[in-house]
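Researcher: I'm preparing a figure for a lab meeting and need a structural model of a single chain. I don't have an experimental structure, so a prediction will have to do for now. The sequence is pasted below. Please return the structure as tokens so I can convert it later.
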Amino acid sequence: MIKYVIVASLFLIMGCKDVKKTNENINNPSTENKEVNNVKGEAEAAQNWLKSSIINYFKADMDQQKIMQDITTKNYYEYKTDATNVDMDVDGSLSLKEFQQKWGNKYNTKYAGINTGFLISAQDWTNIEVKKCELDAISGDEAFVFDVELVDDGSKEVFKRKIGVVKKDNKFLIADVIEKD
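Model: Understood. Here is the structure written out token by token.
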């Protein structure tokens, strides 16, 4: 009988400890919850930065190349510049095969947007607007992928993109753009 009382007492004590832990977790947000909130906050900041960067890029009258360089990682800038110039008659131009060999280990060259401009495939546009910019994935706490739709008000053409944004040195940068059209 005493044996049963001791076992029952142990269960009761352990049960009280679990209830106390549960109540502590409810009343005090855990470190994990703080990290999740921080990542969500960073994702929202990256999203706002991406929208405004795209709008500013297309509204710029001059030196879009400089703006592109400022809002992209060094690797992506070089990659997209090479993609734009594949088989062109310009200094440093690569053949398609050379391009794929050079960048195939870092990027999926199938979605590079060969011979097209940055962010959209149209040569001329009237007014580019961000129709959609939604978080699609988070990789770590400083890399985000956004599902983006850009619309040209003039031609009503829609450009669907997956845009990877990373945070480096306390600023956001575009690290990849997947162009499926």
